[in-house]
Amino acid sequence: MIFYIGPVNLTNTDPSLRRAWHTLCRSEEVTATPRAFDLLGQRWVAYRTSAGAPLVFLDRCPHRFAPLSMGQCEGDALRCVYHGWVFDEDGRCVEIPALGDGATLPSRAQLSAPAGIYESHSMLFIAPEEPLTPRPRITAAEDESFLRGDLDVIETRASAALLADNFLDMAHFPFIHAGTFGADEAREVPHYSVTRDGYGFEATYEHDFAHREDPGVAAGIRPLVQRRRLTYRYVAPFHLELAIDFLDAGGTNVIGFFLTPIDDERVRIYSSLWRNDLEGSVERMREAIDFEVAVIEEDLALQSRMEVLSMPLDITTEVHTRADKTTVELRRVLADLVAAVN
Ligand code: FES
Ligand SMILES: [Fe+2]
Question: For ligand 1, is residue 199 a contact (CB within 6 Å)?
């Protein structure tokens, strides 16, 4: 009998992660000027064609491995800064100046492209190899009644898996977030269930909370303590969403959290808010973003100092309770991805 023994811990650059979608950058960062972005221990170059299509290649010229991100676009083609080789939209070399006109070009003079490129809700995602996981999606991003606010991109020392774990964790609010929203949170995590769907899951629960942002409280129309529903949606490996529905005051507050593993020690965090309860007020969105930044800083003060930057995939390694159902399911999904690739 053959037993599969996979990695015990998932690091930021586990090879299985190459078979999944990752956030490479924000759409606005992709222009006609080539730019480098790091992901899974590799550097990629991204630029945009005149028709607006994003192109991504490994940031390495096949000739002498010069960074293509130092080159420049000529129409929809990319010219390497070193010896001027030109590559077309498909990554094929179409000109080698040193050989003159009409020369036969080596067939291996070809750029390496990721298996998948996908642009959606103002972000660019790539799958380095044939993806097993579904494309990330945030429903609120497609609904025009929502105002969107982007946090600045954060780069930090962290494990992407542990940051995902932290986002899904409900028991840390009164402790880590005592300085922001945690003081009002009950310590006991309510019973909730997790619904698995392939390489993702959803978890929902309702609870009472102090709705300090509700103008109706100050106006005496509604009580301070109100009901809200929290829905966590996770898509492997590192795409997360929390939708908070205010059941009494109305409105929905969506927090998107997209993590890019850069290398074994670093992660980029792309977080955006979608809200339909701010009456379109850019100023109130600005306040909401500042608050979210403060919340993330509370999390990162701990996460950036974790001694071991990897996640145990064997469920028996750590101690879990019923309050940890989402984070246990996270480990199961990631373990399944690792097993599927090996
Ligand atoms: S290294 Fe790019 S053209 Fe020579
Ligand atoms: Fe947190």
Answer: no
